[in-house]
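name: query_chain
kind: protein
chains: 1
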Amino acid sequence: MMQSDFRAVVRLLPVFVVVAEVGQVTTAAAVLGMPQPTVSRALSRLGVLLGTPVVEREGRGITLTAAGRALLPFAQEGVAALERGVDTVTRSGLVGHGTVGMSFQTLLGETVVPALIRRFRDRFPGVRFELSQGSRQKALDDFEAGRCSVALVASPPEVTGGSSTVLYDEPLVVAVHRSHPAAGSGSVSVESLAAGGHDDLIVLKT
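structure:
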């Protein structure tokens, strides 16, 4: 297994452990605070990475396959070890040090990312950032592959092995010629623009 695949497996293990322990995707999603489809995709992705399914449907719930039963004790042990590690760091006063990998869309790099880093460092000045920029898909690919801890993208994504949070909303602005029917209207819907049929839209590629 490639190192990137192994990292992806590790990210999915907490989801697998909770699903295995509660026996239902819906309940597991509630426990994890994740959308049910995201949990289902995480289980499917884990099976793909391992080359064999780890769960199968049984009535309204799920049951572990032979591979899932073999994996479970190791996954539980690993998750428990991580929880102990996090608890140790939290109690030791070491929070506020280390390195955060962040991958972001280029369009967010001019103002948003610097502002976020400044505010974060006001609280945790000892934290370093490793930054990578590119397209929206590149940022999501970096996150899925474990090459970064945080991905900043426009439009909330569906992520596997993690969760997404909306940081802020940004208005969408349409610029038209003063002779355009929509000029001076104050607001315009996408549907009305599309209904025109003759306007060439110039948009920022993400």
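note: The chain has two domains: 3-92, 97-152.
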